[in-house]
Amino acid sequence: MLKRPTADETEEDLLRYQEEFLSAKKASGTKVSRVGDKRNVSEGNQAAVGRQRDVVSMGGASDGTLQIDRLHNFVLHIDMPAQFAHTSTAPPVKKSRFKAEKKKDVPHDCPIEESFEAHDSHISKILTDIVHGAQSDPKAKRKSLFAQQFASSSPSDFGVTVRDKIPPISTRPRRIAEIPSQQSIVSGVGLNSENSQAEAKKIHDENVSALAQLSEEEILEEQKRLFASLDPGLLEFLKSKRKVTEMPKPMHKPESMDEPEPMSVTEPKVQDLKLPVQPGELVHMDKVEADKLEWTKDLQEPVNVGDNKTGKPVRFDFEGCIPQQDVAVHEGLHHHGEEPERAGYTLPELFTLSRSANMQQRTLALNTLACVLRNARVGRFHEMLSAPITPSLLEGGLIFILRWALDNSTEISIASAINTLHALLVCSQDEDALDTAFQWHTGAEVPNLSGNEAEEVEDGEKIQETDPEVVKRDVIKGLLSMSLLQRLRYILEINRPPAAVVGNILDILIRIARHSSEAAYKIIQCPRLVDTIMEQFLVISWLPTDTTVPFTNAYGSPLPRAMKLMRVICSAGRNMAAILLSKYKLFSRISRYIAEDPSTLNLHEDESHALFIESHRTWQVLLSYGFTAEKYRVYLRYNFRETPAIPDLPWEQVSGIHPPIELCVEAVLKHIQNSYIQKVNLELNVIDLVTQVARLTEAVLLPFLRSQAFQILLQHMRDSSVIIHAESSPRTESMVNLPEMGSLCGPSSTPTPVLNHPGAVAFVLSLSRLILVVGKINKQVAPDVCVVMSLLIPIIREVFHSCMERLLTTWKPCMFAIFKAQVDVHYHKLSLSLLLRLSQGDEFIVHNLFSTVIFNPDMLNLVSNAEVQAAYFEHSLQLSEQEPLSSATQKERQLSRIQLIEDTRENLANIRAAYMQAASGFLAQLIRSRSRATSNVLQIETLLTGKIGESIVPIDWAFMPLVYLYNSSAERNAMHANESVPAATVSMVTNCLRWVHLVEFLNPGVLDSVSLMLKLSRLFCAFLAGSDLFLDSRVHHYLEILLRIYCRPSNLDRLDLTLSIPGLASFYDLYMQVLDQYEAVSFGDALFGSFVLIPMMQKHNVSLRRAVWGEHSAALRCLSVPITQLPMSVDRFLAPHEENIQLLRLYAQALLSNTISALWCPVPYLTAVHHVNTFVYAQQNKNEEERQLKSAVLAQMQARKNQEYAHHVLYYKNPNPQSKYGMDLYEELPQVRKNYLDKMGIKL
């Protein structure tokens, strides 16, 4: 008896057992029978059960069986002892999803082996099949048991519907029976019919019926002809659409399909590559890969990219410089880029490397970008590149790359990201300039460095912006919105980077604090940021530092940059200074650092002195708010007590210094006594004070002002001028969203000229303040001082950079105004030009200039009456040829032009009051500015003045009262629509026009920077501010004179109405308001009409003329300005010829409808007749629309040939302002025009 196989036996053992069993030809111990479903078995249907299932009965089971449900519904019956026999029906067993295929019935007389083989599905049968399969095909790969059983099963066993085989694609034409029932090209999409599919089916059936009538040869011939006539692109599209619609996926390759030829790939020959190492010489180099082997060739000669005209992308080395052409390959600047022969990395390549997963590549790219940014800021690429680099980097997304790099946990990656962010945000030259100017007068007051503000919707709420939108508007705000402060705090607190990284982080925080008061407040509000800085970098006690080794660990040592950060935060706002004093005990740290000599602080020498200076500067900022003033007295007593004795010096070297020091001290003390004790001691001897001041002036000031040293200082002042050296200034890398102070000049890191000789500017500034004080006390010395100080005039007119220079420029005119001295005319011009240079925070300077200089009669009394009359006589000659404009009130002019000038001089006080009232909206800013100027510590809220570069006085400040009235007129008209203009409004407009007229006459260059369009726009406000304001005689006179000045040919030639207007969306919107006002209240006034006619000149945009002739055609009837009174030539309305077909149609309609006439609107009438005449007699037509319009106009003119306008259009010759209708007419048409009219079918 064969034994049962064990688990240790292999497949070969099983096959050997099977052969032994078959060769023995023993009877099987099992019997196969069919049984019914166990879940529905009864005694009456045992026969049916036997027919339904295969049952294998094992010998030895006499009265019982054990049934096991197999994969194919097989049940194994094993003969068991009697005690295990079934006495009832079999338990129910779950039916299987798989059913075996029925095989052929085997005859009863068939041998038992054949019967067994026919029904056996045991493992032995499967193994036999495997052996037979392997023997039949020795090369065939053996399949697993599961794979064989899966292959023997049909798709229906797995619930998959068997589809019919798809016929293969054939290249021969289809027969009618093979054509599908649905068209693949005509789908019915786009048909208007509701049943588009039915329409497509109908078209398809018609095509099929047409093909059925043709033979196969005819179909092929028609197919060839169709292919030849169709566009190849369209043909390919139709084929591809058919393939997409009926693409078959045959399971087996059809015999009718041809075998496609394999695509041949031509491998390059090894000999053609010219490689330094041939394939096969090295291990694993036997395969030729041309793309990879290309990099082993020699580099090509680089293209000359020395200038910015080649168009090649610029490349940089690791130092951020543009490399030379002869860079060796081993230096690492050549790589597998688009131009491998060129050394260096382009900006896109650096951006790619900065996002690399490899830390070395990422840090290398970030450090290179930092070097590029620093070199660009100092102007090193000014002559090499065609555009600034920093804006391009920001637009490329540098901010987001750096913010992503900061989140890395690697120390070197964080250091590289901080280094690049520092190079982008921080300008060390600006910081040095601000530190240098801090010791000057008002040096602590600096502008904020913020970007543009967010736009607001109508309800006042700001638009929600994404991070890229915020960065595009303001880089600092974008970084703050991306939690930069929280990340920097984490780096300082947890990562604890080295000293260089800590210094860069503190510089970045300083730049953020200089952005605005809001940004500085966010630094204080950031959790644990200020606490970390105070605990780690502004410590009270620290270990001695080894000064012989480099400073690498900043933790536990006081840092000057940390104290500077506290100073900048205090400068941003009074409340922030109070928080630092109360919560963080800032003054205890300040007193710790200044209480002893810097050399005894146990720090590096440079660090100790810088910490000492920064502590004093921070204390000065606190004192500007009135904080810690009581500590200053203690500090003074301590310092004077600790002052060492003066060493012995040869007195012959310093004997001359005692008298001026004594005089200076005496003058200062007397000034203090006069300022603070006068109210208490009323018996103060003022005469003695004046005598002492006079002695100081005569003994010290005047000799110094006449000395050669002062002349050298003046020359240094000239060398410190930014305007004089403006041509040497590089193209700035500063942007609107990341502004800078602009402290660089020249092609390298040369500081701004005002810092080249800082002592000159600071000393002359202090000297000017002293002279101003002395002049207020003793005005008798003023003439002598003014004569000497007049030498500063040519220099002051050129020097302007910082707030100190603005103060210096301001004090000189104020000083001469107070002294009542006879000065040069340049002082008033200097004051006028200074107004446009003042920025936010200088409101008190504007007030002082308005009060003492700008409208000062003594300043304006610089030209004698004879000169005024001579100049105005010449001016009158230019206007005498023109007829004066008639007013709607029919009042005659009462004042001559000379009388208008005298009237202006007599009303300078009223003019100044008008401008003061117009500037009343700046009252709050004026109070804050004056508080800073007068050191009113209780009123100072911040030392940040305003945005850099923003002028507080608009460029068109001379028209400021008109703008003020225009802005307030809407509310006034809504409340008092029927009331006349108040007298105060008339007075303000009159005073404004007086001043503009005076400035245009005396100093015409002052308003040259204001465009003519802006001047006209502001004069329009005089008509919009009130319904009858322009009818006042004085307002009418000044408006007419200004109109004559602005309508000179030279001015009209440069008039551009497409420029932007501050405060308005466009000139078109303003002009629409003017037309509405003209239709309502003009009364046909010639002055108002002349202003309306200016935008209707041919040189301006056609939309302005279409608005008048279309939407506001009612205004045409009121434009009764005579041609002889026009302030400009009538030819400006006639040339060039009109080409806009819509406007020509409006001209013709206005003539045909009698909307215009030569009697009540001569200028529009002449304009329409001229352009329509030119249009109808044009020999050529650009399009069919012009031809139709021309025919229609001629037909209408022929039908109305007895009308006056028809006669004028057909017989128009040329304009003539002196004639009755403003034009000359042909008595008889030229023959050319007669022939043309005959050709057009027009009979006159």
From TrEMBL:
Domain RPAP1 N-terminal intervals: 201-244
A single GO BP: transcription by RNA polymerase II
SUPFAM superfamilies: ARM repeat (SSF48371)
Domain RPAP1/MINIYO-like TPR repeats, first and last residues per copy: 959-1183
Places the protein is found: Nucleus
Region (Disordered): 26-53
Keywords: Nucleus, Transcription
Superkingdom of origin organism: Eukaryota
Entry-linked InterPro entries: ARM-type_fold (IPR016024), RPAP1/Rba50 (IPR039913), RPAP1_C (IPR013929), RPAP1_N (IPR013930), TPR_RPAP1/MINIYO-like (IPR057989)
Domain RPAP1 C-terminal, residue spans: 314-376
Pfam families recorded: RPAP1_C, RPAP1_N, TPR_RPAP1
Family statement: Belongs to the RPAP1 family.
Protein name: RNA polymerase II-associated protein 1 C-terminal domain-containing protein
Organism: Capitella teleta
